[in-house]
Give the backbone structure.
Amino acid sequence: MSDNLTLPAQQGSAGTSTEPLLKVEGLTKHFPIYGGFPIKRKVGAVQAVDGVDLTVGVGESVGLVGESGCGKSTTGRLITRLLEPTDGKITYAGQDITHASRRQLAPVRSEIQMIFQDPYSSLNPRQTVGSIIKSPMEVNGIEPEGGQEKKVRELLELVGLNPEHYNRFPHEFSGGQRQRIGVARALALQPKLIVADEPVSALDVSIQAQVVNLLKKVQDELGIAFLFIAHDLAVVRHFSQRVAVMYLGKVVEVGDRESIYNRPRHPYTHALLSAVPEVDIDGTGPNRERIRLSGDVPSPILPPSGCRFRTRCWKAQDKCATDEPPLVQISGNKAGHLTACHFPEDPTTEARDEDVVMDPALLALEDAAESDTVPTKD
Ligand SMILES: Nc1ncnc2c1ncn2[C@@H]1O[C@H](COP(=O)(O)OP(=O)(O)OP(=O)(O)O)[C@@H](O)[C@H]1O
Ligand code: SF4
Ligand SMILES: [Mg+2]
């Protein structure tokens, strides 16, 4: 990767520094289920996302974490307006874009970009790398100074690829390199917000470190805000200033990185942290309690009443089945650390840091993220 980034740092279009770039309120997506014969009618709905509140500040990186099927991708697709919300409100740079038409969306389309999980299927195998990265500029009729090809070559260099590979096809690149192509494509329109949906989970752990590091550099140096979706708290830890934990369509806990990793209050966050593999640094054996969640995530077609986590929660009581816990700042939480639980965990558990000790492979990720050098060969 070149040391001198060629894209200008983003100023952010939110009016003031206190106004978030993205604000999501009560965001809901219910996918209807149809049944019956001969006349099909709606018989239910998959409550994929159900009342999510979330903000992302200018240049801020927010992690969105949760198990498979909890609604992370759907949330990302709603924000990028690839899906139409059932309810709720999406405000981008002070503008309500919840139900904006294609034409109304045009001015902000280029500012919000998405990076997808699978670097194999998200690139057209019949297009050269040059035309893949160029296509967002063509679609939006953007002619950068020096021309589109020059910009593509700059972007290739920016993401640590050889600009001379402009005419190569995706199959000629490794998984990590293909994800770099995806990053270059997302950067082509100088976005202000990137929704990265599990951008490294399809890659080997050693390659994950390089791509996370690249994204971090992009965020730091170009000031681009990120919503970084992952199922693994370990990956998000290196990248996000704030973390939101999602369970069965709802955000159950959100807060700054330090609060979430060191003082998690929601039992589900605690369980997710304890699931991160622990390395026995001092040879005395694992020294923290491992929480094993029993059972699978319940169906989003018929989620549990009250608190949706109650069927797997070891602290559940009667109230949890009848009253849905609101996402609020509970006693002992830092400002901005919100938790949705009637009977939260103790905030002062000793040596909570032990909970997030990485296994050796993930430690490599941490080292790479902390180092200034960005490996360019995958
Ligand atoms: N188009 C759709 N029609 C019906 N149900 C859908 C649709 N898209 C997603 N779902 C359902 O919505 C729920 C949330 O899916 P989503 O893909 O958002 O979860 P996720 O958290 O991204 O999971 P993963 O970690 O596996 O990617 C799942 O139960 C999924 O089956
Ligand atoms: S509200 Fe009850 S069931 Fe839900 S997480 Fe808290 S203790 Fe567990
Ligand atoms: Mg997903």
Observations:
- Confidence is low (pLDDT under 50) at residues 1-16, 278-282, 351-363, 372-378.
